[in-house]
């Protein structure tokens, strides 16, 4: 993994978090949650795709397609779980 691909991945994950925050709204703490979830999902999706040898929209060593899918899945799951209230 090269430094430019790490920077590109960080930028893409941050853009996904920002777009999700603009779409769903919330406070500054929720924005931090979205950033954490987007980064975890992005790098987790990239790692899983790399381990399985799957390549969908790769740019150099970065599996952008599956990393983006992982980011959006984790963002959606995290948002859904954050809506649950305990008694």
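Q: What amino acid sequence fits the structure above?
A:
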């Amino acid at each position: 993994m090269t430094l430019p691909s790490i920077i590109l991945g960080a930028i893409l994950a941050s853009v996904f978090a920002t777009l999700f925050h603009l779409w769903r709204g919330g406070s500054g703490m929720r924005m931090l949650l979205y950033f954490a979830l987007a980064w975890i999902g992005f790098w987790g999706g990239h790692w899983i795709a790399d381990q399985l040898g799957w390549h969908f929209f790769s740019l150099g060593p970065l599996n952008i397609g599956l990393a983006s899918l992982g980011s959006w899945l984790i963002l959606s799951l995290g948002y859904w779980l954050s809506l649950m209230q305990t008694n």
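Q: And what stands out in the fold?
A: The first strand starts at residue 58 and ends at 59.
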